[in-house]
Amino acid sequence: MAEVILHIYDVTNSGSDKTNNTIVQINKIFKDGIGLGGIFHSAVQVYGDEEWSFGYCEQGTGVFSCPAAKNPMYTYRECIVIGKTTCSIFEVNQILRELSREWSGCSYDLLSKNCNHFCDEFCERLGVPKLPGWVNRFANAGDTAVEIAENTALRLRQAKAEIVSASKVAYRFLAGIASTSPVAPDSSGNSNRGNPRFQATWFKNLVTSGAKPSSSTELEDQDVAVTEQQQQNEEAPLWQNSRHDI
User: What is the rounded CA–CA span in Å between residue 114 and residue 107?
Assistant: First the structure.
């Protein structure tokens, strides 16, 4: 059996001393102070003096090794003994070959596929416990937030599509009702109800002003009023309807 050791570094490869010092202070407060987590790089050592980790590169595998606890890109912090593996050195080399094929450098993602995710996978294949939660907690929290935001955006797009679809169905339904409504043959007020232009105008007014279609009782009242008006016009003296003096 071989001991599996996790090496942990503060991420201080930003190229700015001010940023690097800020990260170190964040790690001291959130990890050392309250035990929540921080911004860390990790690597796994098993069989020999090399540690194995994962990082970004444009081509080829992102899996690499360097002398244990001596990665020059970061500031060394501490080591943790994860456990002991029953894998032989031959089996460990086989696992590393498989991981090298699966973890290409261009697939690196700061939140969802970083060095800590690689070490988790490596430890799992070695048959030892995964990394402590605080090592990668910030990245996991960020990945969860991104996933929630993406799901929310998807739901909004789906809701918008459903609203548009329902609106189209409602328009066809209301337009169909307007086109099949009975038309009084002698009523000048009803002469345009079957006209497509009238239907479109009526539906537009309905949508923009929030007005409701007339009920059957209201339509009947309107027809009675029109009939009475026609009768009054017929009974009126001729001089009211003529342009010439009598």
Answer: 9
Q: Give the neighbor-by-neighbor strand order of the sheet with 2-10.
A: 63-67, 50-54, 40-45, 2-10, 75-85
Residue that has been written with the tokens 């010092």 in this structure: 21
Cα–Cα distance between 43 and 7 in angstroms, integer?
Answer: 5
Encode pLDDT of 122-174 as tens digits: 999 999 999 998 998 876 554 343 344 445 555 656 666 666 666 666 666 66
Contacts of residue 73, Cβ cutoff 8 Å, sequence gap at least 6 = 13, 41
Strands (E), 17-166: 40-45, 50-54, 63-67, 75-85
Residue 113 neighbours by CB distance under 10 Å:
18
List, as one string, the DSSP characters of 135-167. Answer: GSHHHHHHHHHHHHHHHHHHHHHHHHHHHHHHH
pLDDT of residue 43: 97
Rounded to whole angstroms, what are the CA distances from 83 to 3, 5, 65, 100, 128? 6, 7, 20, 23, 6
CA distances (Å), 169 to each of 12, 175, 181, 196, 205, in order? Answer: 59, 10, 19, 18, 18
Q: Where do we find the tokens 């444009």?
A: 58
> 140: which 2 tokens?
């996991």
Beta bridge partners, 90, equal none
Give Cβ neighbours of residue 132 (< 8 Å, ≥ 6 apart). Answer: 80
Q: How many residues does the chain have?
A: 246
- Report the pLDDT value the prediction gives residue 147, as an integer from 0 to 100: 43
- Note the pLDDT tens digit of each residue in 18-44: 888 988 888 888 887 777 778 899 999
